[in-house]
Amino acid sequence: MPRSLKKGPFIDPKLAARIRHLNATGERRVVQTYARRSMVSPDMVGHTMAVHNGRQFVTVFVNENMVGHKLGEFAPTRTFRSHGGKTAKTVRLK
Known about the structure:
Layout lengths: L12 H13 L5 E3 L14 E5 L4 E5 L33
Parallel strand pairs: 1-2
Antiparallel strand pairs: 2-3
């Protein structure tokens, strides 16, 4: 269920302050964050974020299509190996 419109989008205050500082100075550097629940705002477009997925930081370049989504959506926490079962043997036909 989405957040109430009355409350507005949640953006981590510390992350928002870092982005405001980078926009004011015109710097372009990677911003590391643990705030997966923060929503992507239009101020973040064009920045590269390193979002933590529980094990490592995943580099994410923010573009306009990501506005309104959460940062955690772009840093998957689980890696799919394969389904269990026997592997199929290859048969060579002559």
